[in-house]
Amino acid sequence: MRIDLGCGAHKFHDCYGIDRVDLPGVDLVHDFNERLPLKDHSVSFVMASHSLEYADHLMDVLKELYRVCRHKAMICMIVPYAHVSTHMVNPQFKQLFNEHSPRYWTPSPDTILTQDEYNITQNVSWSAPEIEVRNEKPMIDLRLMRMEFFYFPAYNSGFDQQELSLLRQSQLNVANQMMMHLIVVKQPVTQSELQLIKDSETFEEPEEITELRAASAAKEGKEKLFYLEHMLPIIREQIENKDKNENENTNMNKKKAAAKKTTGKKTGKQPGKQAEKQSEKQIGKKQTSAALLPIKHSEMFEEPEPEPEEITELLLEMDAELESEDEEQFVEKEQKQWIRCEPSKKKVAAKKPSLKKAAVKQPNKQVAKLRSTVPNNTKSKKKQQSTNKASSASASFEDH
């Protein structure tokens, strides 16, 4: 048998409705403060949604429920939470409940619930101080299997369970109501057996509780702890810059891959302008670094690597071409400077070291021939210049 104690006009499904007011759906008009007209051990489930706070004597009602329930029957209670200012002054509420209430409904010192919920209490045992006369059989044994709290909107998001536990036990108007599932124990039962029941049992609850939980979860998902609307332009700009940099890097990698593909096909001399030759030289250096570091090169380009011997031959050929062309250009430039006009003293002084350096760096017949074209009277001019400076200095000294 399943009963809904104080069902009102919204009786729980598959239950026998009991209420002191004759409302639609009520099966038995009866005041539950009186003895229930039910047999002992005949009830398997009890729903008490927002009814027990109106009981004249709570312990007497619980004793009567314990009498009519069978062993391992389930009792579901939805009650107002005690630490609410309006609940405290409501003259219709004769009973108030909090997380410590179930401790007075069992003599068992153990519980399957986590002890984090009771950090504030100083009691070592789960059960509260003895409520029965010592050496007498306990009148009720209702073990708490599950407990859930429902909070005011300000506390629906932004807090973890431990923070909410400390808040509702130390401040007012944090939690609004609570739901408890208790199992009726009339025979010896172990903690492991109770834990198995908790893990496998489907705890029934009213539809309004399910809707309230879903609404709280939806609000928590939409709630924002930080409002960043004023930062949206900056965030968009950062995202655009990031995408732009990624596109540029992608295009650059494609160009490098294309350059590598074209240069890999070149095997001989390709005459052209000086800019093209310099670019070929840079490409040759890249190929050298790629040969020395094949792993990094393969990460940058997906093209297959040429053989090391081909790279060496190509580089030697290009270096020989660049050396011969640089030498011809150097000789031609120096000849033009000396043939056009007689160089000044500063120019001669500046060019002499470069001629020596060039001669030492690349000694050949053309450079030696160029050295012979330098005027022989350079030294005589230097001597004459130094003599003139000395004579002018002595003349100025005599004038003084």
TrEMBL record:
Chain spans, region Disordered: 239-310, 345-400
Biased composition (Acidic residues): 301-310
Source organism superkingdom: Bacteria
A Gene Ontology molecular function term of the record: S-adenosylmethionine-dependent methyltransferase activity
Residue spans of biased composition, Basic and acidic residues class: 274-283
Keyword hit for Ion transport: no
Pfam family of the protein (one): Methyltransf_11
InterPro entries: Methyltransf_11, SAM-dependent_MTases_sf
Biased composition (Low complexity): 385-400
Domain called Methyltransferase type: residue spans: 27-75
GO biological process, one term: methylation
Protein name: Methyltransferase family protein
Species this protein is from: Paenibacillus taihuensis
